[in-house]
């Protein structure tokens, strides 16, 4: 049965649901065990999930139009990568965006020549390597630093600055609204204000970005190592 020269129902809907189910399972695994532990911003998680879903459905729809795969990849290079150049993203975040786009492309564009075992294996390898690498990097990052030799205790200690701090406990990214305190003159006042407003034992900060229009500064702060 057709309506306006288009079928009301097609058997490909079952294929679409199965492939989307596979895509969704591995997307959730990637988001929960790889992306979420190292990223707390909900906006980024929303971007990752919705980008994967939109790319999957557009790819599955375009596959019926028999478009060239190179054209499809070119379109997503424009909308999936260049669009996000308007905001500053770290290389790791850009890599995760490329991974979720790749998962959607693999699950949507695989044809009859590709078995479901191959699709599951490729998805498992991509997600497994991402989770392993994320856990390895996090374990290496949280590893305590080696203690200095005893003979070096008589050396002159340097005051902490914006570029380095010994044994940081944790780092956070905050938006600060008092630009007049960013200079060295009010450094101690700024740290005291951060301690009061965040409840954290702030040891130092680094200025990442200053927005004069909105009168806000992006700061990276760190706390003292717990003993």
Report on the structure:
- With 227 residues, this protein is α+β, with helices and mostly antiparallel strands.
- The chain folds into two domains: 12-141, no CATH class; 163-223.
- 52% of the residues lie in helices and 12% in strands.
- The chain contains six helices and five strands.
- The chain has helices spanning 12-38, 42-64, 69-80, 91-109, 116-141, 187-198, and strands at residues 2-3, 6-7, 171-176, 202-211, 216-223.
- The strands form two sheets. The chain has a three-stranded antiparallel β-sheet, covered by helices on one side. A two-stranded antiparallel ribbon has the order 1-2.
- A hairpin with a 4-residue loop joins strand 4 (202-211) and strand 5.
- Helix 4 (91-109) packs antiparallel against helix 5.
- It is elongated, with a radius of gyration of 24 Å.
- The N and C termini lie far apart (73 Å).
- Mean pLDDT is 74; it is low at 144-149 and 151-167.
Provide the fold topology.
Layout lengths: L1 E2 L2 E2 L4 H27 L3 H23 L4 H12 L10 H19 L6 H26 L29 E6 L10 H12 L3 E10 L4 E8 L4
Antiparallel strand pairs: 1-2, 3-5, 4-5
Helix pairs in contact: 1-2, 1-4, 1-5, 2-4, 4-5
